């Protein structure tokens, strides 16, 4: 607790030795002292006359939030000239209208020319109003702000520099936000940036250089430079090939082509980069980002401090491997080469990977043992997740068998003709299967997922980015190495990439220009988070696996307990495990019902009673909190229904469209259930656990989808393909088919080529 004027406020434990900038974005959350530089384009309106009040209020709110967390915030602001220009124009118009009215005797105003206003006069007129606005806004958050106007002399004169330093430190000590600006009323006209090239000297000729000089002088941890562009691009923004640079390193200037400066202000992007590099060499981390975009300006500052992928981060530490953007481009290029291979060559890669899983069994299990030991020592994984993390000889053998199934079924996947139409004479149209593009698969605690998904991506000709949980790092590393070894036999090693950088899942979900489909494999919370974070990228998967088994009045006694036991107890953590057991009302207090309860007790399954089931019992189990619950453990809910129709309605209301089962000997009832339940998988007299790509004969699956577009249920090779249209003609033009043309549409269906079923 810190105190000032007897008012306590909570501070965060933020401290570090200054002198070296942060190496990674994830470390920015430890920044204690922060300078936020607001460019002219951020503070001013589009007409350059007046302030963008809504934007400014949002920035003040974010700065106040960070200040109240115990950080030391400083603002370097522009805007005095724009605010003064607005005031002076208003005064001139008012003055001219009065003179004109007196001269003409008419109250009606004519068009009046506004003289060109001198910038220093505008600054003098606008500075007090700008500061008053800041004070009014910060007061809403019980924060005091103080104004400091500086010139270049204040940094070059030793005594003035010490005075400035002392003033700023005293303001920060008193929990006051200093608002600093160049004294534009007295500064000389701008000069070329000739002195920005040295590391020891930087002149204050615009607010970029002022912010950099101030950041180093005050030993700040982070400088945030807000402008009207997303960050630093490798070529002028708006040009066709311009790409946003996520991390910029000293020495990368040669790879960047600078464009013109923004619509207002004195510095362009080149000046910002030079100032940022100067601050970086002084030990201050720098991020250049967009402070004007309406969708992100409301949280851009807090996002940067939280380490999110916003703008361009300046770092002195280059990563050992490629960036995730580079990996995405490598996967795209590698995937296209992979798709161009012959089907037999893709199958050969998968067969090789299957062999490596058994040949390198000892090395794989040794790496997996390290992961298990680390997870147990840290105690961060629940027992179901530890089971998923564990690999065994039998698991590897099953994996190899599944991969060989994928290889055998992949020979006629990419390039398969699914429709042929003769549009007109010598004009034939084909619809053929093609890969989706680049897949991002995010998975938790399941290293066996890596070779499965890799094999499906290879079979379907897709590039692949894999992001595994850190709890399986050793296992994932060796499995990815073996995958690349298999890919190398046909020179497509880059098609499958393992993301090992500190990239947050939320940041990966924003790479809409690199990724075509996201497939999450993990907890329902992970899937929900990814669905929420994905920006413009479709997500294939299911957020919950609330699977039902309905026991009908005509159910077989022998089948009921066997199917229920397998559905719930064989692997309770699986997404296709039974979670809600629906019992027909007529079966209550019958021997069959007693057998079901006895079996669940023997298997140590905790029972939760649905509202209707609880009403039939004198002493009931604990009543369920929600009928829409995925337990993922030896627990389940029992509820009572009056008919198969009511069972269907219950499933539609509380289910997750995953897998639902009916147990009955009545074929008519079973068919009604199969036709009316709107789920990805609907079974009759079979365990919910059959909802699986391997058990369906797909070899493996990338996941189970409950969406209604493209793929549904266990997703194998077919779900990773889309189509394109091929039209082969001979000098055909649409005008030939017009009313006065000489050709007619035929639209004849043509036979499909014979599929290779070997």
Description:
With 758 residues, the chain is of the alpha/beta class. The chain folds into three domains: 25-92 and 118-187 and 203-314, Carbamate kinase, CATH 3.40.1160; 324-418 and 432-533, Aldehyde Dehydrogenase, Chain A, domain 1 (3-Layer(aba) Sandwich); 547-700, 3-Layer(aba) Sandwich (Aldehyde Dehydrogenase, Chain A, domain 2), CATH 3.40.309. 37% of the residues lie in helices and 17% in strands. It is built from 23 helices and 26 strands. The model is unreliable at 1-16, 106-110, 191-204 and 262-267 (pLDDT under 50).
Instruction: List low-pLDDT spans.
Output: 1-16, 106-110, 191-204, 262-267
* Share of residues in helices: 25-40%
The CATH architecture of the largest domain can be given as: 3-Layer(aba) Sandwich
Number of strands: 26
Report how far the terminal alpha carbons are from each other: 75 Å
Decide which structural class fits the backbone.
alpha/beta
Instruction: Tell me the strand percentage band.
Output: 15-25%
What count of domains describes the coordinates? 3
**Global mean pLDDT:** 86
CATH superfamily of the largest domain: Acetylglutamate kinase-like
Global Rg: 33 Å
Describe the strand arrangement of the main beta sheet, using strand numbers.
Answer: 5-6-4-3-7-9-10-8
In CATH, what is the class of the largest domain?
Alpha Beta
Q: What name does CATH use for the topology of the largest domain?
A: Carbamate kinase
Q: What is the general shape?
A: globular
Query: What does the main sheet amount to?
Result: 8 strands, mixed
Q: Count of DSSP helices?
A: 23
């Amino acid at each position: 607790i810190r105190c000032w004027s007897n008012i306590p406020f909570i501070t965060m434990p933020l401290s570090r030795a200054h002198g070296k900038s942060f190496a990674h974005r994830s470390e920015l959350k430890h920044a204690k002292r922060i300078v936020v530089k607001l460019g002219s384009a951020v503070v001013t309106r589009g007409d350059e006359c007046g302030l963008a009040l809504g934007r400014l209020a949002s920035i003040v709110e974010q700065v106040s939030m960070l200040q109240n967390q115990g950080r030391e915030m400083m603002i370097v602001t522009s805007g005095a000239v724009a605010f003064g220009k607005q005031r002076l124009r208003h005064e001139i118009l008012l003055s001219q209208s009065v003179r004109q009215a007196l001269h003409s005797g008419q109250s009606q105003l004519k068009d009046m020319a506004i003289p060109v206003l001198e910038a220093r006069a505008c600054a003098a007129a606008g500075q007090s109003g700008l500061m008053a606005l800041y004070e009014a806004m910060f007061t809403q958050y019980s924060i005091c702000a103080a104004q400091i106007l500086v010139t270049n002399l204040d940094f070059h004169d030793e005594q003035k520099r010490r005075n400035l330093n002392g003033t700023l430190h005293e303001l920060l000590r008193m929990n006051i936000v200093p608002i600093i600006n160049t004294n534009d009323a007295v500064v000389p006209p701008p000069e070329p940036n000739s002195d920005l090239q040295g590391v020891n000297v930087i002149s204050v000729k615009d607010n970029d250089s002022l912010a950099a000089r101030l950041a180093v002088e005050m030993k700040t941890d982070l400088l945030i430079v807000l402008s009207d562009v997303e960050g630093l691009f490798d070529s002028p923004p708006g040009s066709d090939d311009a790409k946003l640079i996520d991390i910029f390193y000293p020495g990368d200037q040669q790879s960047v082509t600078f464009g013109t400066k923004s619509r207002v202000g004195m510095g362009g992007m080149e000046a910002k980069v030079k100032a940022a590099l100067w601050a970086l060499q002084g030990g201050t981390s720098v991020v250049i980002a967009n402070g004007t975009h309406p969708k992100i300006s409301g949280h851009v500052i807090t996002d940067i401090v939280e380490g999110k992928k916003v703008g361009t981060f300046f770092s002195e530490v280059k990563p050992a491997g490629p960036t995730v953007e580079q990996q995405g481009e490598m996967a795209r290029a590698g995937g296209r080469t992979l798709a161009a291979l012959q089907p037999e060559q893709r199958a050969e890669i998968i067969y090789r990977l299957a062999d490596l899983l058994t040949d390198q069994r000892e090395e794989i299990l040794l790496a997996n043992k390290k992961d298990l030991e680390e997870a147990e020592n840290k105690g961060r994984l629940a027992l179901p997740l530890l089971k998923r993390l564990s690999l065994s000889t039998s698991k590897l053998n099953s994996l190899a068998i599944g991969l060989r199934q994928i290889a055998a079924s992949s020979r006629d996947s990419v390039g398969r003709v699914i429709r042929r139409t003769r549009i007109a004479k010598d004009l034939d149209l084909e619809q053929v299967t093609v890969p989706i593009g680049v897949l991002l698969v995010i998975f938790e605690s399941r290293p066996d997922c890596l070779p499965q998904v890799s094999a499906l991506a290879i079979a379907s000709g897709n590039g692949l980015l894999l992001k595994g949980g850190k709890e399986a790092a050793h296992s994932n590393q060796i499995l990815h190495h073996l995958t690349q070894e298999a890919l190398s036999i046909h020179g497509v090693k880059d098609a499958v990439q393992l993301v090992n950088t500190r990239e947050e899942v939320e940041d990966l979900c924003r790479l809409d220009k690199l990724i075509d489909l996201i497939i999450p494999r993990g907890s329902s919370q992970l899937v929900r988070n990814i669905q929420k974070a994905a920006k413009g990228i479709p997500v294939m998967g299911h957020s919950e696996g609330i699977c039902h088994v309905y026991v009908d009045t005509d159910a077989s006694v022998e089948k009921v307990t066997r199917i229920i036991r397998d559905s719930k107890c064989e692997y309770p953590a699986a997404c296709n495990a039974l979670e809600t057991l629906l019992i027909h009302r007529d079966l209550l207090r019958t021997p069959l019902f007693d057998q079901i309860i006895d079996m669940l007790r023997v298997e140590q399954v905790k029972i939760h009673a649905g509202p209707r089931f609880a009403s039939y019992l004198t002493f009931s189990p604990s009543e369920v909190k929600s009928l829409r619950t995925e337990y993922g453990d030896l627990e389940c809910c029992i509820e009572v229904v009056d008919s198969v129709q009511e069972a269907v309605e219950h499933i539609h209301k509380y289910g997750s469209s995953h897998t639902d089962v009916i147990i009955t000997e009545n074929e008519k009832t079973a068919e009604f259930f199969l036709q009316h339940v709107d789920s990805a998988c609907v079974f009759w007299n079979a365990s919910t656990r059959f909802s699986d790509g391997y058990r369906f004969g797909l070899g493996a699956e990338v996941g189970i989808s409950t969406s209604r577009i493209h793929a549904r249920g266990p997703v194998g090779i077919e779900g990773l393909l889309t189509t394109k249209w091929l039209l082969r003609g001979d000098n055909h033009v649409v005008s030939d088919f017009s009313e006065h043309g000489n050709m007619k549409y035929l639209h004849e269906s043509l036979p499909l080529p014979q599929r290779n079923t070997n």
